[in-house]
Design goal:
alpha+beta; 7-stranded mixed β-sheet; 26 strands
Length: 607
């Protein structure tokens, strides 16, 4: 049995290029109509953008850059800091750099639209929507700072052995659960073992904790504990990994590595109704389809948040109307509203903020084990047959850019030197005619193709998808049917590889190319939903995991990315473009980030 067969992905999406309801990293997101592309997150795995509307079809607001966009600032471009490299394996995270300044606690309630999270269990989460809530209610040994560097959270110190394989964490004396019970090293070890238990069905344990020695044995049911997680004393835990890996610390910032309360989980089957987390906010209220209320944790180990609570409206509504009626404090901006808001004379113009593009990629996945996608020439032909640049310019108003690879612009290892799929219908037809399905195409015996997307039956099909399907029809003579499936069911079916063709997105969870290339394309990873398997790609990915020379490592990833492009397990569609958000002038320090990180504790009202 492979590790991949053990996990069931439970993910929920953020929106494709608009007001994304984000999922965490390496998190997946449904590919909806890219409104004003969210400048940062897409489920796959994800940053968090203000959602214009809760449903998966809703437009998503830009939730991007590493720089803070203070609500009171003029409507100008927000400069995004350069993406930093992950902390090297032979060093550990900076010490408590997350504590607040001396500003007094302000109080008040931040109100926004949101969507029902598929889960609030950190060990089951694999989507941006869930992660947004989980990141505020729970925490782990480390977290991501606003510039995407791993920094200490529950831990007050961290050291790494000379060989880069043993990490020793000392917990903060004041780290405690919401009920006041101190967090101990035993809680950390138990949480890792609970996530690694095959009965937990953790969405991402192999991807994020699989480097720890003994996690695989636990996951396969061959061990009762994770031997690489060793309690030294109540405040000290030692984690041993199987090889020095530069990205390991960053992986611990994902919810799968978060600490949960063993006593509560084992004694209360409804523990998620009021989870006893360690984060800056407590879950005060959750009325499915109606409302989520997060309440400030006064005893948070890094200092209490400035605002008293966050209210997330789940019942839908027109985000723009609600914003103009002062019912919500922030929202993403769609293409229909953007032109007027860009006019200096519009009263909302000073509240408009531009955010950098998310670290995401959108694609149409092809199940390479099913006809006709078991022939790489068919897969390549379908890439060559669509004019992405024309669709981006004329259908999506230039708010996205054609995806010419897996790694998004600005992300570590990104390169413009790849040989990608430019529009070439003549070559596409040649590939079809030289494929194993040429005679079937000529005799109308070509396998029927169905594209599955997330959404309620009867919901509008994204216009860009309709254009892509029409181009396949015109250029290749291929008819593609569309079926829609409710988001949670869609994600589970994708994980179980039930679909012939599906539309999805992926947003980064941590700033390392491994988060895209390894998780999505290694044959043993759960997030590889296309049945793609290339032994040479697997070998190079495994080599890159342990390569400590940054330049050589990125060269390997560039080589791997080109091989994946050539094999074409996807039809590549978009990278998000810059996005736009409206933020009320009384709201300060609402940070637009390119990945999903804890953020509400920074927010305060300036009037």
């Amino acid at each position: 049995m492979t590790r991949k067969t053990l996990s069931i992905l439970v993910m929920v999406a953020a929106l494709v290029a608009a007001i994304a309801v984000v999922a965490c990293g390496g998190s997946e997101t449904p590919a909806a109509e890219p409104a004003a592309p969210a400048a940062t997150a897409v489920p796959a795995a994800a940053a968090e953008a203000p959602t214009a509307a809760p449903p998966a079809q809703a437009a998503t607001a830009p939730e991007p850059t590493a720089a803070a966009v203070a609500a009171g600032a003029p409507a100008s471009v927000t400069t995004v800091a350069a993406m930093p490299a992950v902390t090297p394996a032979d060093s550990c995270a900076p010490s408590a750099d997350l504590t607040f300044d001396n500003r007094p606690t302000q109080g008040g309630t931040l109100v926004r639209l949101f969507a029902d999270p598929p889960t609030l269990d950190p060990h089951l989460a694999g989507d941006v929507t869930s992660s947004v809530i989980i990141n505020e209610v729970f925490g782990g040994l480390v977290t991501l700072s606003l510039d995407y560097q791993p920094v200490l959270d529950l831990a007050e110190s961290c050291s790494v052995s000379e060989d880069g394989m043993v990490y020793t964490f000392v917990l903060r004396e004041n780290a405690q659960f919401h009920d006041g019970r101190p967090v101990t090293a035993h809680d950390v070890k138990w949480s890792i073992e609970r996530a690694s238990d095959p009965e937990t069905l953790s969405a991402r344990v192999q991807d994020y904790l699989g480097d720890i020695v003994g996690v695989d044995d636990k996951l396969l049911g061959n061990a009762s504990e994770v031997r690489g997680a060793r309690v030294i004393d109540d405040r000290t835990i030692e984690l041993t990994i199987d090889a020095p890996k530069s990205y390991f610390l960053a992986k611990l910032t994902y919810p799968t590595a978060f600490v949960i309360d063993q006593e509560q989980v084992e004694n209360n089957e409804d523990w998620l109704d009021a989870p006893n987390g360690t984060g800056p906010f407590k879950l005060e209220t959750y009325e499915i389809g109606e409302l989520i209320v997060l309440e400030r944790n006064e005893n948070y180990h890094l200092g209490p948040a400035h605002i008293e609570s966050v209210q997330m409206i789940l019942s839908g509504g027109s985000a723009m109307i609600m914003y103009e009626n002062d019912e919500i404090h922030l929202t993403g901006v769609g293409l229909d509203d953007l032109p007027r808001l860009l006019e200096p004379s519009d009263p909302l113009n000073p509240q408009l903020h531009r955010s950098a593009q998310d670290f995401d990629v959108f694609y149409i996945g092809l199940n390479v084990a099913e006809p006709p996608f078991d022939d790489p020439k068919i897969r390549q032909a379908m890439n060559y047959a669509i004019d992405l640049q024309s669709i981006a310019d004329n259908v999506l108003d230039g708010r996205v850019s054609p995806a010419r690879g897996v790694i998004p612009p600005g992300f570590p290892s990104y390169t413009t030197s790849l040989r990608s799929y430019e529009y070439n219908p003549d070559l596409a037809r040649e590939l079809m005619q030289s494929s194993t399905y040429a005679s079937a195409l000529a005799s109308d015996d070509f396998p029927r193709i169905t594209l599955t997307i997330s959404g309620s039956f009867g919901a509008a099909i994204p216009t860009y998808l309709e254009v892509i399907l029409e181009q396949w029809r015109q250029e290749l003579g291929i008819e593609v049917d569309i079926q829609q499936t409710e988001w949670a069911t869609f994600l589970q079916d994708v994980e179980e590889e039930k679909y012939q063709m599906f539309s999805l997105g992926w947003i980064a969870d941590y700033p390392d190319p491994e988060n895209f290339l390894d998780l999505l394309f290694h044959s043993e990873h759960d997030a590889n939903h296309t049945n793609y398997s290339n032994p040479e790609v697997d070998r190079l990915l495994e080599e890159a995991r342990v390569e400590r020379d940054r330049e050589r490592r990125f060269q390997l990833y560039n080589q791997i990315e080109q091989m994946i492009l050539d094999d074409a397990p996807w039809v590549w569609t978009w990278f998000s473009g810059e996005g736009w958000a409206l933020i009320k002038p009384e709201v300060s320090d609402y940070f637009l980030t390119q990945m999903s990180i804890p953020k509400y504790r920074y927010v305060y009202f300036n009037q």
